[in-house]
Write a structure and sequence with these properties.
The chain has 7 helices and 6 strands, in the order E-H-E-H-H-E-E-H-H-E-H-E-H. The protein has 190 residues and is of the alpha/beta class. A 6-stranded parallel sheet has the order 3-2-1-4-5-6, with helices on both faces. Strand 1, helix 1 and strand 2 form a beta-alpha-beta unit. Helix 1 crosses helix 7 and helix 4 packs across helix 6.
């Protein structure tokens, strides 16, 4: 059984987190631990047709944003890693500086110190030098940065096609077998 922590921040793009949770729900050997920031809660209701109770139903375990005493706030609680999707630049900056004032940033700090897989899906454009420096600092520590950049080789027909391509990338990062998106098959020359 894999334990994956999923932090959802207030950056635009909560649909990426929802799709990831839906796909993980269908995989029987993965247990999800979800943390919603206060702004994530607002964005889910602004950007989607989902309610917070829908997210709670997709998660195996929900954690309170300010609960620094949660099991996932300790390195002794074994996880297979964490993804923050979407990752706000505020959260990226806090993680980069080791500022753990909430459960998302604390769980990320634990993930880094325990040398477990940490994936960030940053949602910001354009990126300032400050954003890039924070992301670079984290990448040097082994954090995988997977921005939601759409692929067009797969000829997406819907927004859902674009979202699923991102979900495929996140699942791949955790070594979770999936058939979510369309993979590049190469060009056949004769």
């Amino acid at each position: 059984m894999k334990n994956i922590v999923i932090g959802i921040t207030g950056a635009s793009g909560s649909v990426y987190a929802i799709d990831l949770l839906q796909k993980l729900r269908a995989i029987t050997n993965v247990r999800t631990h979800v943390i919603l920031s206060p702004w994530a809660r607002q964005n889910i209701e602004i950007e989607t047709d989902y309610q917070i109770k829908d997210i709670q139903n997709l998660a195996d375990e929900m954690h309170q944003f300010k609960n620094l005493g949660a099991n996932i706030a300790s390195g002794s609680f074994k996880t297979d890693g964490m993804v923050i999707v979407p990752a706000s630049m505020k959260t990226v900056a806090a993680i980069s500086m080791g500022y753990s004032d909430n459960l998302i940033t604390r769980a990320a700090d634990v993930t880094i110190k325990e040398q477990r897989k940490l994936v960030l899906v940053p949602r910001e454009t354009p990126l300032s030098v400050i954003h890039l420096e924070n992301l670079t600092r984290l990448a040097r520590l082994g954090v995988q940065i997977i921005p939601p950049v759409p692929a067009f080789y797969n000829n997406p027909q819907t927004i859902q096609d674009i979202v699923e391509q991102q979900t495929m990338k996140i699942l791949d990062a955790f070594g979770i077998q999936n058939e979510v998106g369309t993979r590049w098959e190469g060009i056949q020359h004769e």
